[in-house]
Design goal:
The complex is a heterodimer of chains A (545) and B (318).
Chain A lengths: L2 E18 L2 E15 L2 E5 L6 H7 L8 E10 L2 E2 L5 H7 L4 E4 L3 H4 L6 H11 L5 H14 L5 H4 L9 H13 L5 E5 L7 H18 L2 E6 L2 H7 L2 E6 L2 E7 H6 L4 H7 L20 E8 L9 E8 L4 E5 L6 H9 L6 E6 L2 E3 L8 H6 E4 L3 H4 L6 H13 L3 H14 L4 H4 L9 H14 L4 E5 L7 H18 L2 E6 L2 H7 L2 E6 L2 E7 H4 L6 H8 L8 H13 L1
Helix pairs in contact in A: 4-5, 4-7, 7-8, 15-16, 15-18, 16-18, 18-19
Chain B lengths: L1 H31 L4 H6 L5 H11 L5 H13 L13 H36 L4 H15 L2 H15 L15 H34 L3 H8 L4 H9 L4 H17 L2 H6 L5 H10 L3 H28 L2 H4 L3
The chains are: A alpha/beta (545), B mainly alpha (318).
């Protein structure tokens, strides 16, 4: 399939600049790249590495506030950076297509899927509307969408995330383009859904011999999808090689650090004494939203001990965050009880005393939106100290500075900053500090690392582990990321459909024999081995047979 | 569709409740006004006996609550009652005026709504260019100038200097449609200038807001032209905010025309209302205000329903 002689796409010394604070700053700093027909190139790097910008650049497109500032992009002999609008527009859909990260946001909410699918095949005169519809249904079938005959006649909000992502891949295929840019197409999906989308994308790309640029920050995903991998950092290439070489023998120190990122593991702790009173516990908690007929949580019991981490894992909608909401008193249980040091806690947060509120604090997934953008760090951290612990004046300032030291941010430098003057990882550190400032017994960490790059996430995990030891904190660690669980958990709770499927010490959950759902979850986590996807799919097919 | 109907019924019921409250408020406001009808009609020289007899005849000697309930009873049975001043049935008095007001408002709406939409789309399409800026400057100028001034300028220009249209929009009842359009052209144009800017700017802003969304970028990456992007991909998603503003402006065309009616001596509801307030003609004021309130409520209801119908998320549940 691969024609190694004629490159379909070549970038030479491509440079793209972005406007920030009235000055043009380089985003892509001279990238060379070449792609032959039928080849899949993986672009990998952390956020800000310029992956998406390069991917879009391959379509001759830059976002508003960006511009091509040097170099060239040749697609099948046509130079795109200098081409007029008409030329570039005519290539899109027909010859180069795009699959976006969030299909849910990238389908127009006002139109049915199939009408968005057939828009360009019909407009470009490639097919009649009737034929385009038939073809769409055929593509839906090939991508293993359920109900291929009907699914296209739904609106985007009526279709699940994983299905939308496949429908978007189908739409990209509509005109049978030569090149598809996949921009983190599975990042927003659960692992169990991701595996289906990955195999669907890979099959269809192989079937049609389409070339692809596959952008992701997840190494193990790119290992399954790409023939060749290019590692990017700060808008420049770090290194590029075929997939096997890149995985087995990375040359650059930065690449090696990316590869080694999952090395962190919290220390093994002694088991909790049998008669120890948990800091907080849930006993048979069942909760329900008033408007819904069935409970969202069903008979959930978890003990949180001081100095221990309970990781709660499951897919989106499994009830992980709802459990936290019940614990916080935001969604009062209809049955069961919540205990603090063995004493019952009011189901509603309004009826809890200040000391009880102080005991349970929360760290949020999006530090960006969880911190008040108008408050300085001093106030963000100082407010809970004053409110719960009555600290004022010089004592307050001392405590704030000590806490900033604790979270490894230089107090002099950071105490008067606004959240907008911090990086993503630093913001999350402030989120942690705010929870600690109250002096809690239990800290609920709701997907605290999932919006962060792997290297930054690892730093946060290390920090949380250190703080746990210093302050003897109990953690409830909500995540959908199994490798994070492996790194930090003492106990694991697996949830599905609002129920606990399995719970116990980490070593027990993560070793055979596996409970079937846990097995599905664990086996869906991509591994660095390029043969992983084939192996898992073959295993599953064998089991079904 | 089922929940749309249920919503409609619920909102309609709420609308009637609002009307009831409005009627109470108007009644009490008029009670608070100094002076009374009897004095107005009979003049300064009337003897106390005459005044008392006059009040008795019209039922004005009854306590306010009784009078209100009497009026409400009649109104609910479709009897709008008579004018306190002229004694003519209010239905007769108002129907002609109402027709005139709605005619003028409809005329202005027919010009201004399409104009605002087209200008909004065009300025969004050419945002940042000289065309966009000139449209905005013109629209803002029109909205910043007091409406009576716009009216007089138009009269001076089109009636005095060029003598294209009559400056006074007096209508005879049996005027032909053509004649009506000719005579109401200047007031309609004045109203158009007043309301277009608001609608046009909302259209432009709603469209430009959407342009940053991922599905618009997706459409670009599928190869959609600028025009297609705005008209086909963005506009259907901007219907809700645009319709809301159109509804407010249409209601304004009916309720807020008093000054324009005075400038052009146009025999509409606004003039009637002003006259009736001056004469303490309670029953007429009450009816006119209720018509105005009902207009507002109906336009708002319509805009809410259209907003919901334009949003597949609300129309087609999961």
């Amino acid at each position: 399939m691969k024609d190694t002689n004629t490159p379909l796409l070549t970038m030479q010394n491509l440079q793209i600049e972005g406007l920030s604070e009235d000055r043009w700053k380089p985003i892509v700093k001279g990238v060379d790249l070449s792609l032959v027909k039928g080849e899949v190139l993986g672009l990998i790097g952390e956020s800000g590495a310029g992956k998406s910008t390069i991917g879009l650049g391959a379509m001759g497109y830059v976002r508003d506030g960006c511009r091509f500032s040097g170099g060239s992009v040749h697609f099948d002999g046509i130079e795109l950076t200098g081409a007029d609008r008409e030329t570039r527009r005519n290539l899109r859909s027909t010859r180069i297509a795009y699959v976006a990260q969030s299909a849910a946001a990238s389908f127009n909410p006002a139109f049915k899927l199939i009408n968005q699918h057939t828009e360009f095949p019909v407009r470009r005169g490639l097919m009649s509307r009737e034929d385009a519809r038939k073809d769409a249904i055929e593509l839906y079938r090939q991508l293993q969408l359920p109900n291929p005959e009907e699914i296209g006649f739904r609106y985007p909000h009526q279709v699940s995330g994983g299905q939308l992502q496949r429908a978007m891949t189908a739409m990209a295929m509509a005109c049978r383009p030569d090149l598809i840019i996949f921009d983190e197409p599975t990042t927003a999906l659960d692992v169990t859904t991701q595996i289906e989308v990955l195999s669907a994308i890979r099959n269809i790309v192989e079937d049609f011999g389409t070339s692809a640029i596959y952008i992701t920050h997840d190494l193990s995903v790119v290992a399954q999808m790409a023939d060749r991998i290019m590692v990017l950092r700060h808008g420049a290439e770090v290194e590029a090689a075929d997939t096997a070489t890149m995985l087995n023998a990375p040359k650059q120190a930065y690449t090696k650090s990316l590869w080694a990122v999952r090395s962190f593991k919290s220390a093994q702790k002694v088991p909790v004494a049998a008669d120890a009173v948990p800091a907080v516990s849930l006993r048979g908690v069942t909760a329900q939203y008033p408007a819904m007929k069935t409970p969202v949580l069903n008979n959930v019991s978890i003990d949180f001990h001081a100095g221990r981490t309970v990781a709660v894992v499951g897919e989106s909608g499994s009830g992980k965050s709802t459990t936290a909401r019940s614990l916080m008193g935001l969604l009062p249980p209809v049955q069961g009880e919540i205990l603090l040091n063995g004493a019952p806690l009011s189901p509603q947060f309004r009826k809890r005393s200040k000391a009880q509120l102080q005991a349970v604090q929360m760290i949020y997934q999006m530090a960006d939106t969880a911190l008040n953008p108008k408050q300085r760090i001093r106030d963000i951290i100082g407010r809970p100290m004053t409110y719960y612990r009555g600290l004022k004046g010089r004592k307050l300032t001392e405590e704030i500075r000590a806490l900033l030291d604790d979270i490894e941010l230089e107090p002099d430098q950071y105490i008067n900053r606004l959240p907008s003057e911090l990086s993503g990882g630093q913001k999350q550190r402030i989120g942690i500090a705010r929870a600690l400032a109250a002096g809690p017994k239990l800290v609920i960490c709701d997907e605290v690392t999932s919006a962060l790059d792997q290297l930054v996430a690892e730093g946060i995990l290390r920090l949380l582990d250190k703080l746990q030891q210093e302050h003897n904190l109990a953690y409830m660690f909500i995540t959908h990321d199994i490798s994070t669980v492996r790194a930090i958990a003492d106990e694991v709770v697996v949830m599905q459909h609002g129920k606990i499927v399995e719970q116990g010490p980490k070593a027990q959950i993560f070793s055979p024999p596996f409970q079937p759902y846990t097995d599905l979850l664990l086996s869906s986590v991509p591994e660095m081995d390029p043969g992983w996807l084939d192996r898992v799919l073959a295993d599953r097919a064998a089991k079904r047979a | 569709m089922h929940h749309l109907l249920r919503l409609f019924v619920k909102r309609l019921a709420l609308g009637f409740l609002t009307l009831f409250v409005v009627s109470l408020v108007i009644f009490m406001s008029i009670e608070l006004l100094p002076g009374d009808v009897a004095q107005q009609v009979l003049g300064q020289s009337a003897t106390p006996e005459n005044l008392a007899a006059f009040r008795r005849e019209l039922g004005l000697d009854q306590p306010p609550l009784t009078r209100y309930l009497d009026w409400l009873e009649g109104f609910l049975q479709g009897d709008l009652g008579n004018s306190l001043i002229s004694g003519l049935p209010i239905r007769e008095l108002i129907s002609e005026r109402m027709y005139n007001t709605f005619f003028l408002a409809g005329f202005a709406a027919l010009i201004s709504v399409p104009l605002a939409l087209v200008l909004g789309v065009v300025s969004a399409l050419y945002r940042g260019t000289a065309l966009d800026k000139s449209i905005n400057v013109l629209a803002l100028t029109a909205i910043s100038v007091p409406e009576f001034f716009v009216g007089y300028i138009l009269v001076w220009l089109l009636a005095v200097e060029f003598a294209l249209f009559p400056s006074i929009a007096n209508l005879s009842e049996d005027a032909s449609l053509g004649d009506r359009i000719y005579r109401t052209f200047l007031p309609a144009l004045t109203l158009t200038l007043i309301v277009t800017a608001h609608m046009m700017r909302m259209t432009r802003a709603s469209l430009i807001n959407l342009l940053a969304l991922p599905y618009i970028e997706m459409a670009k990456l599928k190869g959609a032209s600028q025009r297609r992007l705005i008209v086909i991909h963005a506009l259907p998603n901007a219907i809700a905010p645009i319709v809301t503003v159109i509804a407010i402006n249409l209601a304004y065309l009916i309720v807020g025309v008093v000054i324009v009616e005075v400038v052009f001596v146009y025999p509409g509801m606004g003039q009637l209302l002003v006259d009736s307030v001056a004469k303490r003609d309670f029953t007429v004021v009450q009816t006119a205000c209720l018509i105005f309130a009902a207009t507002y409520i109906l336009f708002n209801l319509a805009s809410d329903l259209i907003s919901i119908a334009s949003n597949p998320r609300l129309l087609h549940r999961k």
